[in-house]
Design goal:
Elements lengths: L1 E7 L9 E6 L8 E10 L1 H7 L10 E2 L4 E7 L9 E4 L20 E4 L4 E3 L6 H5 L2 H13 L7 E4 L5 H12 L4 E6 L2 H9 L5 E3 L5 H8 L5 E6 L4 H8 L1 E9 L12 H7 L2 E4 L8 H16 L7 E6 L3 H11 L4 E5 L5
Parallel strand pairs: 9-10, 9-12, 10-11, 12-13, 13-14, 15-16
Antiparallel strand pairs: 1-2, 1-4, 3-5, 3-7, 3-16, 5-6, 6-8
Helix pairs in contact: 3-4, 3-9
Length: about 325
């Protein structure tokens, strides 16, 4: 039996992504068969398709995360149950980089690769959960966040930046500040209920933080963007502040003043998901996220959903139009 997938055989532009037919996966012993309903599009997919990750081999199916429904299950995941498809493979690496990802109709997965979707959470929200919220929670854990700390999360329109804002508030931050790359995006964020937004078309990060905090700075920065903004964010930290870095879509180099680290006692820490989380460590993070998701304290935001065959345009839309919220590919409709 043949099923559909989005695959590329050569590195290059968006047009390398093709809707193809591939053999139906046969679950190994212990695996469950999942029908993919929605798969997310993330910036790293663009990096992989361009050939910028040496470990990637073609042909390749992209996709770190998604949501689906169990077709052949077990007692814990019976047929018909909706599930979040975790980004972690059984080996602890992130799917869609070295191994085929979620941009296909069916997946054969082990139970530890799945997370049940709370009843009131939509399939769209579930498909948009892993990369943003798992990454953001891992960052907060890395800096040993506790209630009462102030947080600056860069990029309210991005997956991790948006999730870090929501999680910090839900966990009791005393103040949460975020940034928007344009006035238009700042207005969208305000309309969505976000506050303390620094419009980078009008002021710098350090000026905005100084204004909002009366010159005190923030305790923690979650930086999922990198580049020049990292240096600006470092200048925004208070004494004993910590910046945690997980992304570099804006660049891998920045300029900072070493005396800020010495005189203010600052720290910089890095977070990567692939290869760093055992199944038990993954469960710790999920146990922090899922109650908040179930209770409605956090909510993944979706900008637009494309049909699977529109994958090239979906990727272009994410990378070039920089929407507010996640971009998804629709493979099937639940039920």
């Amino acid at each position: 039996m043949k099923v559909k997938a989005i695959q590329f055989n050569e590195f290059g532009g968006y047009d390398q992504l093709k809707l193809v037919e591939v053999p139906m996966l046969v679950p190994a012993e212990g695996q469950l068969l999942v029908r993919v309903l929605l798969a997310a599009v993330n910036p790293v997919d663009d990096t992989v398709r361009k050939g910028m990750i040496p470990q990637t081999k073609t042909p390749m199916v992209l996709g770190n995360e998604g949501a689906g429904v169990i077709i052949r299950g077990n007692a814990a995941f019976p047929e018909g149950k909706r599930v979040i498809i975790s980004g972690f493979t059984p080996q602890g690496s992130i799917r869609g980089i070295r191994t085929d990802g979620t941009w296909q109709e069916y997946l054969a997965l082990y139970p530890e690769e799945l997370v049940g979707i709370p009843d009131h959470v939509s399939t769209e929200e579930a498909a948009a959960t892993f990369v943003g919220f798992f990454s953001a929670q891992a960052c907060l854990n890395k800096v040993e966040f506790v209630a009462g700390k102030s947080v600056l999360s860069l990029g309210v329109g991005g997956s991790v930046g948006n999730a870090a804002v929501q999680l910090a508030k839900a966990h009791g931050a005393s103040l949460v500040i975020t940034t928007a790359g344009s006035t238009a995006k700042a207005k969208v964020a305000e309309a969505a209920g976000f506050d303390h937004i620094i419009d980078l078309e009008k002021e710098s990060i350090s000026d905005g933080v100084r204004r909002i905090t009366d010159g005190q700075g923030v305790d923690i920065v979650v930086d999922s963007i990198g580049g020049a903004l990292t240096g600006e964010a470092i200048r925004s930290l208070a004494r004993n502040g910590v910046i945690v870095n997980i992304g570099y879509s804006a660049g891998i180099q920045f300029t900072a003043n070493l005396t800020d680290f010495i005189w203010k006692g600052l720290q910089m820490r890095g977070v990567s998901l692939s290869g760093w989380f055992s199944p038990d460590e993954q469960r710790v993070v999920w146990d922090q996220i899922l109650p908040l998701l179930e209770n409605g304290n956090i909510r993944p935001m979706v900008a637009r959903t494309f049909d699977a065959g529109e994958a090239p345009e979906a990727q272009r839309y994410l990378i070039e139009d920089k929407p507010f919220g996640k971009v998804l590919l629709r493979w099937a409709v639940a039920g």
